[in-house]
Amino acid sequence: MTSTLPDDLLASVRGRAAIHDRENTFFADDLADLRDAGYLGALVPRSLGGAGLTLREVCHEQARLAGAAPATALAVNMHHVWTGVGRYLHERGDDSLDWLLADAARGEVFGFGYSEAGNDLVLLGSRTEARPDGEGGYTFHGRKIFTSNSPGWTRLGVMGLDSTTDPDDPRIVHAFLTRDGGGFEILDDWDTLGMRASQSCTTLLDGAHAPADRVLRRLPPGPSLDPYVLGIFTSFEVLLSSVYAGIADRALALAVETVGRRTSMKTGRAYSQDPDIRWRIATAALAQDGVWPQIDGVAGAIDALEDRGARWFRDTAGLKVRVTETARQVVDEAIRCSGGSTYFNRSELGRLYRDVLAGIFHPSDDESAHSTVAQSLLGPVEA
């Protein structure tokens, strides 16, 4: 499998992860190294200057990066989501995001400015206002949360509701902003339990402008099978799953290493010989063994241009929930096997325990995924 992440680069990233977590600082040094390695263009086709990796291959790269530094992987993931959307469209004959792919290959960093407090509609609605500028562009006014790469993005994908052009036909506007365009403020409010280096700060939009050539879609609120929406949803869920799978892979490896060197005073033997510990390790491994075939299967189907229509929402939301819940289980078992030292901040397993919790907050959350699957099987709830 093709790789763009050399082992020595991952070693450098791993060596800085605890420092960024402890000091609550952005992973600027990691980002510079990843840019220099061409990793920001991993999903970009070779014809547009990138590495040309498939979605399945990048999932495995993201898992390796997450095993070294989960917060770095999570934030870089939001960049890869956008290149994933660009690739999704490009491979289906739509060149509207080819400029984004070329920008990424040149080292531009993309951020994901979609999340809003209390917006459980996610892609289907928005609290942000999109005000037309009269020339085909828009200014955006609203509050975005969990904006990963806040200190580092140079391009920010956003959405907002245009209810003024035609009040009887409101539209969700999807567009891109540039960092030097102004009209926004990034709050210094990222002081979280885990995933600290991602610096996913709140972004206040107050007139941030996207010109007409950076407005990609104007879609009716509500469910949509537009390829742009499908590209966002599938890329987000699959790539996110790979990050949490990587955290679980690393936690299991650490647990195996730890129980092999810890010795019981009661028996004088390594904990790896204790039947209860062996059961826990096996439980974690059995759960984790089911994760990668699912990721590979879904990512491979997207790479193969498989058309599942609305079923893609069920398949990828379900994947995200299963992987993130499994990752929490694996890390929990790893902690239980490894002793009280993991309760200290200096412990890598302790840090993974905090980082893995973030998985429950990303869309699709547990409730949304269950609603999607129920509707797929039972139809909509009757009015």
TrEMBL record:
Keyword field: Oxidoreductase
Q: Superkingdom of the source?
A: Bacteria
Query: Is Repressor among this UniProt entry's keywords?
Result: no
Q: Name one GO molecular function term.
A: acyl-CoA dehydrogenase activity
Claim: Chloroplast is one of the keywords in the record: no
Q: Where is the Acyl-CoA dehydrogenase C-terminal domain?
A: 240-362
Cross-referenced InterPro entries: Acyl-CoA_DH_C (IPR013107), Acyl-CoA_Oxase/DH_mid-dom_sf (IPR046373), AcylCo_DH-like_C (IPR036250), AcylCoA_DH/ox_N_sf (IPR037069), AcylCoA_DH/oxidase_NM_dom_sf (IPR009100)
Any one Pfam family here would be: Acyl-CoA_dh_2
By what name is this protein known? Alkylation response protein AidB-like acyl-CoA dehydrogenase
Query: Which species does the entry assign this protein to?
Result: Isoptericola jiangsuensis
Organism placement in taxonomy: Bacteria, Bacillati, Actinomycetota, Actinomycetes, Micrococcales
